[in-house]
Amino acid sequence: MAPPSYRHHRAAASGSMDLPRLPDSNARYRDRCFWDSRYREVGAAPAEWFGGLSCFREQLEAELRPGDRILVLGCGNSALSSDLFQLGYTDVTSIDYSPVCIAGMRARYAQCQGLQWVVMDARDLAFADGTFDVVLEKGTLDSMMVVETDPWNVSPETTALLDQVLKEVSRVLRPGGRFISITFAQPHFRKRHYAQPTYGWSLRHSTYGSNFHYFLYVMCKGQELSPADLALGRRLHELPCPARPPSVLQALDSEDYLSAIELSQTVCWSLPPARSH
User: Fold this and answer.
1) Long-range contact list for 110-118, CB < 8 A, 24+ apart?
2) How far apart are CA 261 and CA 266, in angstroms?
3) CA proximity to 34, closest of 95, 119, 98
4) What secondary structure does DSSP assign to 119-131, as a single string?
């Protein structure tokens, strides 16, 4: 979790104490009305969880191919879709379940004709099987897990919620397609959810960041999980372990969850020139 004074330190560092209104509970971060209200307040100006594209460009572009059809889940007001477009990935569909968010992003990036913005729930994707080469999410799954206080023992409700999303991701990926998940969740917490044979993909990860490490997980559709990952995935369905102390990565309800993960945690530089495809 972030220190109680973290959000105030972040505001002071940015020269402003005018932070968006905080919810009364972290559970509100799973509430569409909260996000609608937040996007009305902050608009479509770029804001990044876990840093912008320049922070993990090398790891991400290693997984992308010219002409890839890309789906971004829970796009929010991140500039990621636009940054990918500027680098030459011109077939990018971005979804979010907040209509306020999508309206703002359509207006902000109206000049980028290859970008599509769609109101849609990641649990129920309105795309045909095998539509995309790449599905990408950055922080969306983390926002679905904010009510969990013990990452070793995730509730059945949250486990089922993630399973809904991951089944849909697997369905819309073509054979050989890649699901890329960017998160602050360490492998011993997150890999159990991804390492389920029903999704039909392999699993690996890399890290980025200096003072604080973030994780980029890559699942390749049509490849097999390793025996070690299969064993890890089975643990997700075992009986809960005894209670452990709260993880340092979990935000308390008395703190601003977004402050703990937004762009100020990682210092990033501007993007290099786009490569030609």
Assistant:
1) 112/82, 112/85, 114/85, 114/90, 115/81, 115/82, 115/85, 116/92, 117/75, 118/93, 118/94
2) 9
3) 98
4) E--TTS--S-TT-
Task: Describe the strand order of the beta sheet including 204-208 as a list of residue ranges.
Answer: 115-119, 92-96, 70-73, 132-138, 173-183, 214-220, 204-208
3-state secondary structure of 83: helix
Q: What is the pTM of this model?
A: 0.78
In sequence order, the 6+-apart residues with CB closer than 8 A to the CB of 273 are: none
Beta bridge partners of 116: 93
Do the Cβ atoms of 93 and 80 come closer than 8 Å? no
d(CA 100, CA 31): 14
Instruction: Give pLDDT tens digits for 142-173.
Output: 988 888 888 889 999 999 999 999 999 999 99
How far apart are the C-alpha atoms of 101 and 151, rounded to whole Å?
29
Give the span between the Cα atoms of 131 and 163, in whole angstroms.
20
Q: Which residues contact 229 (CB under 8 A, 6 or more apart)?
A: 191, 195, 202, 203
Beta strand 173-183 pairing with 214-220:
antiparallel
Report how far residue 95's alpha carbon sits from residue 53's, in angstroms, rounded to the nearest whole number: 18
Using pLDDT thresholds of 50, 70 and 90, give the confidence band for residue 216: very high
Q: Provide the 8-state DSSP code for 117.
A: E
Tell me, what DSSP letter sits at residue 46? -
